Here is the input.
Amino acid sequence: MSEADDDDLARWQDALLEILSRGDDPEESKAELERLSMTMGEPHVAYVRTFEPRMIALAGRLVAKWGRRGPC
Amino acid sequence: MSDVAVGLSLMPTEDFLRATLPLFETNAVDVVEWSFDTAWTDEELPSWMPPLLDDYAEAGRLLGHGIAYSPLSARFTARQDDWLRRLRVAFDRRAYRSVSEHFGFMTASDFEFGAPMPVPYTDSTVRIGRDRLRRLKEAARVDVGLENLALALGTRDVDDQGPFLEELLSAVDGFLVLDVHNLYCQASNFGRDALALAERYPLARVRQLHVSGGSWSGDGALRIRQDTHDDRVPDEVLALVAPIAARCPNLAHVILERVGGTLRDAAEEAAFAEDFRVLRKIVREG
Here is the structure.
């Protein structure tokens, strides 16, 4: 696997935390995550399609509770 | 299971001290686990803690459990490099038997701390995780392990985590910290049988079990079990300990966890100590 894969994954992880931190409607968050995952190929899209909105909502609450921003 | 040590995850709080002092005074605590990266120096700790850590370290009964390494973050950052440098100093100062961390990632974008999140099981994420575990082992110079994650965003996370952990840990001959409450969370939230789910994990790699309580949120179909570590260990989790332990031939330690500051009164402190005694009895009697 290439560095490009790592860059894609890094951008995906950035986006996941940002989207979760917004606390949007979890259905809308899932749709946005699905769109973003399309650049990473069908396996990743299939992975995101398994996400359950109630668990996205929980993950958002966890990011809101524990997430701390700063220079990484 | 008479040779399995039963211990506590240390918390630097007065409620934890009040609850556990009778256990320490009667030598009931075989082993302690300490999240060293919550306070890198002894000066940040209450005065009773450094001597306790020293005693257990000198007896070879101190386990390290990090919370902020973020081993599956795609980018290896200066923050992680600094974390490893600090870990090296901490492990030079005190003899830890092993070090473990949490499956998943918490740092990305400009988040420098958070709750661990799941990652997809791919060749890339396996390679990244193996690299981070090798770095961890090189820095700590003790055996390294990972703890299973409570949070799953979907069924793929539930089904993949066991084989994913095996691929990661096999690269460093690492061990699995199987958190029974985390397993219970996933089983409850996705309608699975907890023991069947446990069988998906590399049980021969389990050296530690974590046991804790948690909480429920939501109602009906939206009801979710959360790994909040702020309540007593439920009977359903205690009932899983013996059958899971029996499936783990290399189990060495069972650790009871509770977040410091969540024991609200004397009754809750007594109940926590009672949970420990019950857990110890279960482990001893098998």
